Amino acid sequence: MQTDNLNKNYLLDYSREEINHYIQDMGMASYRTRQIMQGIYIQKLSDFTGLTTLSKSLRDTLNEKATLRTFKAIKTIKSDNDGTTKFLWSLNDGLKIESVIIYEGDRVTFCISSQVGCALDCQFCSTGKMGFLRNLSSGEIVEQVILMMEQAERPATNIVYMGMGEPLLNLKNVIKACYILSDPEGLAFSRKKITISTSGIAPAVRKLADMDAPFSLAISLNAVFEEKRRLLMPVSENFPLEMLIDNIRYYVSKTGKRVTFEYILIDGINDSKKDADQLIKLTNKLPCKINLIPCNSTDPRYPPTPNDRAKWFADYLHQRGRTATVRLRKGWEIQAACGQLYAENEIKIGRKNTGDD
Ligand code: SAH
Ligand code: SF4
Predict the structure, then answer these.
(1) Least C-beta-crowded within 10 Å: which of 199, 210, 300, 303?
(2) pLDDT digit string (tens) for the chain, length 357 residues
């Protein structure tokens, strides 16, 4: 990506190999790549001035041609309760995205966005109400992580694509960002601790399996009957549950990995015994864990399942051999659910996403 404001090359978009080509084209020696990677990802420099392993003239040349930052921090909100910190960033074209740090015991999860808005229109989701505006570049995905690393109380243990957007509709940039984040000469983040979360783009799940991408996969299931799922998640019209589950089974058998199912519990809508039975049926012999999340919503049509019922639901699954946990949404009081900070700031109606590239 060329940044509009500065007309410079945005090096967070570049893999190590691309940085290597880029600097060689500028006449620099190949071994400089390692120094530059160190500067970007270990020192977390915001420009090349502090990269003292390079001569002043090389630093000046890089500063002239390339940039390492395109975000402006618009808002940061931290919960006094549990430390959850939510960031609203303005991108170089003025569009806004959000990212969240969640502290939970020893876990420090960075929740990142993959798109500005989302085309998929899930009824309970604030991001869905924005419509789709654009895909994030891989550098914009990486920049969220670097900036949050500077602010976090402790190092991140997990990175999840559970902010704005549908990562599997921006597959190329998302996968590239995952590789950049896990580059051993950069941040070296553990690959299996990076989780891509999808609402169920079934063909892309199959593609991920075929690519043998070494990252983790979560599927936002949220409903186990086709009709109900279509009402809550219109994506099911294109990629019905049956096709989705088939492709997940393919993914699991091809990769040997287990998947995570995210299941938002909505009072009286998807939390009955019948729902639980069907969830058990769908996940029969499927290596998985199930995260139950009482819906975090200000919309009275989607009230959260009360905690005692959520616990009943989890126990019911558990007794039938499923690994299920109730995850109370952190940061309720700062509206940490997907898209909510943005929604509070402004509502935009976007165009429809046409998919990856
Ligand atoms: N588009 C992807 C990833 C971003 S959404 C996906 O749908 O998986 C990340 C998660 O936020 C999803 O699991 C989604 O179900 C959840 N989510 C959205 N709105 C929510 C709400 N109001 N309460 C609780 N979780 C919500
Ligand atoms: Fe998009 Fe995920 Fe929100 Fe659905 S839940 S609208 S897929 S971001």
Answers:
(1) 300
(2) 555 455 899 999 999 999 999 999 999 999 999 999 999 999 999 999 999 999 999 999 999 999 999 999 999 999 888 899 999 999 999 999 999 999 999 999 999 999 999 999 999 999 999 999 999 999 999 999 999 999 999 999 999 999 999 999 999 999 999 999 999 999 999 999 999 999 999 999 999 999 989 999 999 999 999 999 999 999 999 999 999 999 999 999 999 999 999 999 999 999 999 999 999 999 999 999 999 999 987 789 999 999 999 999 999 999 999 999 998 765 555 555 555 555 554 433 333 443 443
Question: Are residues 309 and 279 both part of a single domain?
Answer: yes
Q: Rounded to an integer, what distance in angstroms lies between the CA atom of residue 45 and that of residue 40?
A: 5
Determine the residue of 338, 340, 342, 344 to mutate for testing ligand 1's pocket, defined as the one with the most ligand atoms within 8 A of the Cβ atom: 338
β 132-135/115-117 pair status: antiparallel
Find the domain containing 27 and state its range. Answer: 9-67
Residues 99, 47 share a domain:
no
In the chain, the number of structural domains is 2
Give, using CA atoms, the residue closest to atom 6 of ligand 2. Answer: 128
**Residue 193 alpha carbon to ligand 1 centre in Å:** 19
17 is catalytic: no
Atom of ligand 2 nearest to the CA of 199: 7
CATH number of residue 76's parent domain: 3.20.20.70
User: Is 4 domain-assigned?
Assistant: no
86 and 103, same domain (yes or no): yes
CA–centroid distance, 25 to ligand 2, in Å, is 41
247-262 residues labelled b (16+ CB within 10 A) or e (exposed): bbbebbeebebebbbb
**Contact call for residues 264 and 295 (beta carbons, < 8 A):** yes
Of the candidates 143, 333, 338, 344, the residue annotated as catalytic is 338
